């Protein structure tokens, strides 16, 4: 069996298909696939016991043509430059697709945040932020949370940047706590968007969301609340999982209880009272209406795609399905709502947060949620229409719209000199 595609290979493969469909020439293809700026930094960390470890950190600004770069920062042991490149490229297409005036970026530190104390985590965050300071800023590049980082990470980054500037700069990061310039509704935005995307797809297929069965892989920031929102909207969430494994209840899980359980410090959902234990592999193969992969890249691949029985896959994570898997799923009639559409609620509300910070004028949670819903339904409608018109998958249609808008911006601005 051929080696599984990496995230960077998958991202390149998807871009090549969009470029082919759009009829762009090789020069344009090169321009679009090459990251504009890549920074690799050393992040020395003094551990609590006094020993020093030098971690590797990255920030990749994939494209800056439509506006400042935008994208999260990931703290994960497997993070490397190629992964960050892929994630940055996906941010470029995502921002263009949903019509927010940003390019795409991503950052990361190769570290396991769960193995660090809070003080160590703060030192890593502040040092990483200091190392990338020259290239970030509200008009240059605006980081946000991603896997392994959260609103506290963003508060430390905002503080570090502000101390160096000599005044408070709220707009340098998004996904901050509301007390320091964050937006109402940002915390649940990605998950809420997953629900809007799922329901748009169900509505189009004439499926009633009430009673639709759901399995969610990943019970973190995105998956946990996606399960909750889908449950609240009337779906039956039969399975959820995390790195420790999964839980199953065919009659519907107590999602609120599971969230409380995990928030109270339980290391895994496994063992939650009244549930059966399943593996992550089994979860992906459940016969459900909606499967939400909300963990890491590449979990649905050529080795397991033929076993997926879900009718809809709604990609809460970035890059959970490889191009090989996409082909198999399409043959089997599974509809994939692609990451750049399905999880775009996060960066959409990041944009709202940045706008509110720049204006120093803040909106209510209802205003944020209503604007998010309108934005996502518009994006879904555009993707679905192009997919029908060109007879391509929703992923290819979403990529075509994103890539096409970036290409158009390049064409309009012209090549300097
Ligand atoms: N990390 C999130 C994503 O992958 C959010 C990025 C942002 O808000 O800038 O879309």
Automatic annotation (TrEMBL):
The site feature described as Important for catalysis is recorded at: 146
Task: Provide this UniProt record's keywords sorted from A to Z.
Answer: NAD, Nucleotide-binding, Oxidoreductase
Q: Identify the domain of life.
A: Bacteria
CDD domains noted in UniProt:
NAD_bind_1_Glu_DH
Name the GO terms of the biological process aspect: L-glutamate catabolic process
* Family note: Belongs to the Glu/Leu/Phe/Val dehydrogenases family.
Q: List the catalytic residues.
A: 106 (proton donor)
Query: Entry's InterPro entries?
Result: Aminoacid_DH-like_N_sf, Glu/Leu/Phe/Val/Trp_DH, Glu/Leu/Phe/Val/Trp_DH_C, Glu/Leu/Phe/Val/Trp_DH_dimer, Glu/Leu/Phe/Val_DH_AS, Glu_DH, NAD(P)-bd_dom_sf, NAD_bind_Glu_DH
Residues binding NAD(+) are 190
Keyword RNA-binding attributed: no
SUPFAM superfamilies the UniProt entry points to: Aminoacid dehydrogenase-like, N-terminal domain, NAD(P)-binding Rossmann-fold domains
Matching PANTHER family:
GLUTAMATE DEHYDROGENASE (PTHR11606), GLUTAMATE DEHYDROGENASE 1, MITOCHONDRIAL (PTHR11606:SF13)
Enumerate the PROSITE patterns for this protein.
Answer: GLFV_DEHYDROGENASE (PS00074)
Pfam families with a match to the protein in the record:
ELFV_dehydrog, ELFV_dehydrog_N
The UniProt annotation places substrate binding at 70, 94, 350
An MF annotation (GO) of this entry: glutamate dehydrogenase (NAD+) activity
Annotated Glutamate/phenylalanine/leucine/valine/L-tryptophan dehydrogenase C-terminal domain residues: 183-414
> What name goes with this protein?
Glutamate dehydrogenase
């Amino acid at each position: 069996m051929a080696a599984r595609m990496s995230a960077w290979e998958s991202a390149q493969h998807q871009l090549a298909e969009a470029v082919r469909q759009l009829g762009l020439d090789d020069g344009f293809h090169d321009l679009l696939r090459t990251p504009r700026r890549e920074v690799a930094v050393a992040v020395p960390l003094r551990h609590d016991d006094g020993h020093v470890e030098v971690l590797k950190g990255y920030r990749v600004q994939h494209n800056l043509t439509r506006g400042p770069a935008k994208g999260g920062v990931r703290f994960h042991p497997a993070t490397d430059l190629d992964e960050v490149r892929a994630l940055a490229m996906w941010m470029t297409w995502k921002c263009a697709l949903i019509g927010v005036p940003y390019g795409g970026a991503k950052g990361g530190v190769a570290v396991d945040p769960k193995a660090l104390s809070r003080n160590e985590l703060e030192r890593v965050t502040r040092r990483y932020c200091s190392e990338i300071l020259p290239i970030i800023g509200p008009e240059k590049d605006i980081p946000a949370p991603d896997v392994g980082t959260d609103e506290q990470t963003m508060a430390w980054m905002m503080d570090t940047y502000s101390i160096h500037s000599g005044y408070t700069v709220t707009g340098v990061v998004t996904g901050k706590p509301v007390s320091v310039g964050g937006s109402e509704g940002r915390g649940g935005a990605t998950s809420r968007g997953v629900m809007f995307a799922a329901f748009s797809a169900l509505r189009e297929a004439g499926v009633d969301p009430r009673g639709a069965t759901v399995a969610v892989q990943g019970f973190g920031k995105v998956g946990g609340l996606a399960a909750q929102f889908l449950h609240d909207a009337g779906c039956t969430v039969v399975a959820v999982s995390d790195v420790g494994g999964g839980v199953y209840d065919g009659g519907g899980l107590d999602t609120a209880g599971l969230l409380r359980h995990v928030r109270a410090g339980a290391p895994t959902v496994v063992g939650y009272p009244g549930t059966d234990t399943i593996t992550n592999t089994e979860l992906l193969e459940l016969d459900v209406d909606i499967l939400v992969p909300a963990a890491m890249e590449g979990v649905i691949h050529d080795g397991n795609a033929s076993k997926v029985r879900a009718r809809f896959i709604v990609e809460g994570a970035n890059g959970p399905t490889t191009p090989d898997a996409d082909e198999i799923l399409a043959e089997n009639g599974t509809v994939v709502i692609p990451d750049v559409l399905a999880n775009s609620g996060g960066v959409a509300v990041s944009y709202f947060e940045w706008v509110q910070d720049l204006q120093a004028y803040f909106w209510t949670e209802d205003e944020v949620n209503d604007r998010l819903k309108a934005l996502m339904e518009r994006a879904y409608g555009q993707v679905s229409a192009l997919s029908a018109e060109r007879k391509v998958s929703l992923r290819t249609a979403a990529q075509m719209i994103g890539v096409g808008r970036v290409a158009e911006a390049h064409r309009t601005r012209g090549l300097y000199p």
